[in-house]
Design the sequence.
């Protein structure tokens, strides 16, 4: 057993965990934070994606004991109004009047889900991905060292770690592109294209 | 999952002492392979020593131009590094072709080459496997072999090494810095992994308690023209069926120098020395690419299986090698 403090969606949470507990199980079973979903529990689906230290990671392959002192953001905490510490929402974007993060808003507007099980992971992953894109990170489909454009192929490649059993991909890709365009997340010199 | 003690020591020396002092201890890097294995029962340590946060997480340029990549550098940061993208595009491309954005943010430079095979029998503790349980037999012999080796396998194990990054490192003459109970040493990357022979339980030459602290990339000017080509069952987020890492230098239509390594076909990232010897000094033509593949694949042996086996890997690898070289030669002509 280990005592750890994890900042979850802006709130410090202290808990004692068995060393075997994953961050996903600690969030869901111990802290009641159920937006990260358990799809496969083996790193293969992305449903459990959270931000830790601002980066998208898989909570099912993260031992909770390694997260002592970490700042973890789940889909529930993406929008500022949910956050008692009043920090800007993840990705540095403003939430709207409904309290939705721009990526969440875009998913709603584009109807980018069916059953919704993969959605919290998709949304958190997209927030992390847009931040990586804004920093100029390449992907496997980026040509040479030119700044990438967030076209269909780039979004599909960068989001390939999030599977959707309902295959809502046709709407997920445009939702991510819309969020990027509206928030100005796209890197300087990088365009957003269909 | 078996209970284990967890430690997060202050420095590398303390981590090495912890693991060296307990035969059932393991290092924990990004955890993307080890945590999975804890759940599957493939690994059952009684002490887990976290090293991801104590290992160097920066990429340093040494006098003479060598890039020293700290073992704590995450795969995503390494792939995005400007110097790596310009000087060693094959490495950036190999990393980006592997796993997913989330996994690359977690996986470390030290853990990636030490990830274990994805052989389905190795990962299923209910089936015999010499690698997991020495002497129990190899379920892949006569079993599903689509993802297994065609080069350097033994009757005891047909597994392939799954890492993409390692294939690029093998082609680039990288060197591995290791801190062990008896101090520091450096080993060539191509000498890190070993063929299965009669002891497939040992993936590498590392001894218990050996910690990878950095990987060095010596200057290699021809690597500015390098590429990684990966063929797989789906477009992204899948392991390689075959892959090729290559770098070439071309002058007046003649290949003056080359580095080639294969992935997905052997227990090790396969440095293709024979192919390189054919390429050096030969005209950059389709005949040369074919001859290079012939030389390297002369000893290739496919495995049978109810899934049709893996004989397809041999022609696939020939074409992938030719496509990679053709692309680089074209790029070089620009
Ligand atoms: C769904 C999925 C898909 C994937 N797809 C790909 C792919 O397409 N291509 C690819 O290349 N990889 C792929 N991977 C594998 C991934 O790249 C590796 O799991 C990762 O690189 C391992 O690094 P890590 O730091 O997480 O290692 P860990 O899981 O922490 O450790 C792996 C092993 O190395 C040991 N270790 C860790 N660090 C050190 C060190 N510094 N010194 C000595 N020993 C150490 C550990 O004890 C353990 O035995 C995939 C993984 C998953 C889950
Ligand atoms: S191929 Fe190797 S890893 Fe796979 S079952 Fe046989 S011995 Fe085990
Ligand atoms: S539940 Fe973590 S990747 Fe599937
Ligand atoms: S919406 Fe059902 S799994 Fe994605």
Sequence:
């Amino acid at each position: 057993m280990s005592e750890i403090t994890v900042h979850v969606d802006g709130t410090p949470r202290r808990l004692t965990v068995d060393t075997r507990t994953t961050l996903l199980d600690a969030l869901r079973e111990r802290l009641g934070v159920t937006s990260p979903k358990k799809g496969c529990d083996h790193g293969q689906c992305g449903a459990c994606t959270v931000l830790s230290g601002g980066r998208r990671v898989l909570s099912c392959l993260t031992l909770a004991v390694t997260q002592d002192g970490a700042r973890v953001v789940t889909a529930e905490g993406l929008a500022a109004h949910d956050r008692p510490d009043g920090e800007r929402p993840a990705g540095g974007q403003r939430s709207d009047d409904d309290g939705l993060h721009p990526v969440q808003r875009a998913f709603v507007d584009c109807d980018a889900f069916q059953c919704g099980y993969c959605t919290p992971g998709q949304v958190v992953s997209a927030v992390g991905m847009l931040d990586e894109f804004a920093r100029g990170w390449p992907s496997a489909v980026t040509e040479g060292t030119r700044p990438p454009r967030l076209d269909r192929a780039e979004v599909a490649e960068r989001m390939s770690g999030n599977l959707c059993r309902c295959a809502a991909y046709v709407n997920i890709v445009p939702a991510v592109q819309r969020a990027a365009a509206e928030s100005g997340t796209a890197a300087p010199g990088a365009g957003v294209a269909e | 999952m078996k209970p284990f003690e967890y430690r997060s020591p202050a420095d590398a020396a303390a981590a090495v002492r912890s693991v060296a002092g307990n035969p059932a201890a393991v290092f924990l890097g990004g955890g993307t392979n080890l945590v999975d294995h804890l759940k599957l029962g493939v690994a059952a340590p009684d002490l887990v020593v976290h090293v991801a946060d104590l290992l160097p997480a920066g990429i340093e340029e040494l006098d003479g131009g060598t890039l020293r990549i700290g073992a704590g550098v995450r795969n995503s940061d390494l792939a995005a590094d400007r110097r790596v993208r310009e000087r060693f595009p094959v490495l950036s491309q190999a990393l980006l072709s592997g796993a997913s954005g989330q996994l690359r943010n977690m996986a470390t430079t030290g853990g990636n080459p030490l990830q274990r095979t994805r052989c389905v029998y190795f990962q299923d503790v209910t089936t015999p496997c010499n690698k997991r349980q020495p002497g129990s037999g190899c379920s892949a012999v006569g079993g599903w072999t689509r993802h297994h080796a065609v080069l350097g396998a033994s009757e005891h194990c047909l597994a392939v090494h799954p890492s993409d990054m390692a294939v690029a490192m093998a082609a680039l003459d990288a060197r591995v810095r290791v801190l062990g109970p008896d101090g520091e040493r450096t080993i060539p990357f191509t000498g890190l992994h070993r063929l299965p022979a009669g002891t497939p339980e040992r993936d590498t030459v590392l001894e218990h308690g050996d910690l990878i602290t950095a990987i060095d990339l010596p200057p290699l000017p021809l690597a500015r023209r390098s590429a990684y080509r990966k063929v797989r069952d789906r477009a992204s987020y899948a392991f390689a069926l075959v892959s090729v890492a290559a770098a070439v230098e071309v002058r007046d239509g003649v290949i003056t120098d080359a580095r080639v390594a294969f992935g997905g076909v052997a227990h090790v990232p396969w440095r293709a020395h024979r192919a390189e010897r054919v390429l050096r000094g030969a005209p950059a033509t389709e005949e040369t690419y074919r001859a290079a593949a012939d030389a390297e694949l002369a000893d290739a042996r496919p495995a049978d299986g109810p899934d049709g086996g893996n004989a397809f890997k041999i022609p696939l690898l020939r074409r992938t090698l030719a496509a990679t070289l053709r692309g680089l030669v074209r790029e070089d002509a620009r």
